[in-house]
Amino acid sequence: MISVKELKNPHVVRRDLLASLVVFLVALPLCVGVAVASGVPAELGLVTGIVGGIVVGLLPGSKLQVSGPAAGLTVLVYEAVTEFGLATLGPIVLAAGLLQVVMGFARFGRWFRAISVSVVQGMLAGIGLVIVLGQLYAMADTAQPDTALAKLAGLPGLAAEIVTDTEAMTAFGLGAGTVAVLLIWPKLPARVRIVPAPLAAVGLATAVAALAGLRPMVADVNGLLHAIDLPGAAEFGNLANVAVIGTVLAFALIASAESLFSAAAIDRMHDGPRTNYNKELVAQGVGNTICGALGALPMTAVIVRSAANVQAGATTALSRVAHGVWLLLFAALLPAAIGIIPLASLAGILVHAGCKLVPWKEFGPLWREHRGEAVLLAVTALAIVVTNLFEGVVLGLLLAVVKSAWETSHVQLSTRELTGGRVVVTLTGNATFLRLPRILEQLEKLPQDQPIELDLTGLRHLDHACRVALENWARRHNHAEIEPVTIRR
Prior knowledge:
Elements: H1 4-7, H2 10-37, H3 42-58, E1 67-68, H4 74-84, H5 86-105, H6 117-139, H7 148-153, H8 155-164, H9 166-184, H10 197-211, H11 224-227, H12 233-237, H13 242-267, H14 277-293, E2 300-301, H15 303-311, H16 318-333, H17 343-357, H18 360-369, H19 371-386, H20 389-408, E3 411-417, E4 423-431, H21 436-443, E5 452-462, H22 464-477, E6 486-488
Parallel strand pairs: 4-5, 5-6
Antiparallel strand pairs: 1-2, 3-4
């Protein structure tokens, strides 16, 4: 929230307003690009950016984090719109927002910090790969296949079309030029980098297309109010569909995880007040509830805009609120400006954003130092590409739980023989079903013609499966006229 004391300081106000302009220039092309890639009208991306700036910006949680439509939800939104229709997107986002509010008041925000980092990185990497595969087709103004595997298989055909079709080659050139500008821009002098890279890339591509007389595909712009479609009772009735409920859960969980992980990253970039995770979760939920009521895209905290906000010198929430005001003024006064931007250029921005979601540099060291975490990351990412976002993330979470259980269920088995021939077998550590094969293999090697005592007093944990298995082994072990196995707990 913005305090009155902060607004009375002209130095703070001036600095934060300047920072808000930087964030606005970064957010504008991303709002439009994410909307187009999600298969919805471009204006709806601006609506979400406006709500994320003005509404969420005024709520407590994080002072410097900036919210809006995110590339991380592009795949899920596209799937939802394709399967259930654009009219159902609003109720899905609204329900997901209400769920986030409930989770925030129930103090679930801190639990998102317990999600395996490798699963989150794998989720973002999988999303990034799917975005890149889809937007390569958009860069050539070509229809993309429905599934990620089909997009991957169609790349040779896409390359052939770019080489042989003049229009596809022209569009792809604009998209590739956009990516090139984004890569080169950080290396240019500081006075040039005053203009944010995404805005410069889109502006240059638009100028080249206009000056060269090119006619690439552009967004269909009808105005902000025309794009807003308030959902009705029939659309809300779709929430009874099991598949829609699954999508709501996916929206809420993934948007929450992305927002709170972004908050953790932004907190490391500044020395100001730390994020209150539960309040931030409520704020994100309120924002998504309003976006859903307006039929707009879902929102998350966006690391690109948030980092730009911090780097521009912002110290209060005024910068993120003001950036929402600039988006509103642009959408109200200059909506036609969106209609001259080549879609191939917006696709180039998304390709660049998708590549940045994949942790290329971090994977090598992770593989060398924590191979299990690297496998978890890779499996989650590939599962998202092969199946879909929800199933891939669920698989990653399940694998993380199994990996954690396996690593914590260490158990040691030792044997010693006492005078008189009695064998004492001692188990220590944590005995779970994951270690049963190893435990039973060692027990079955024991002699069957000597009395055995099984000492379980050193176990910190013995689960039901292990207890039953050990009792069954004790009953059947001695088949001769020997004293039966005794178990000491």
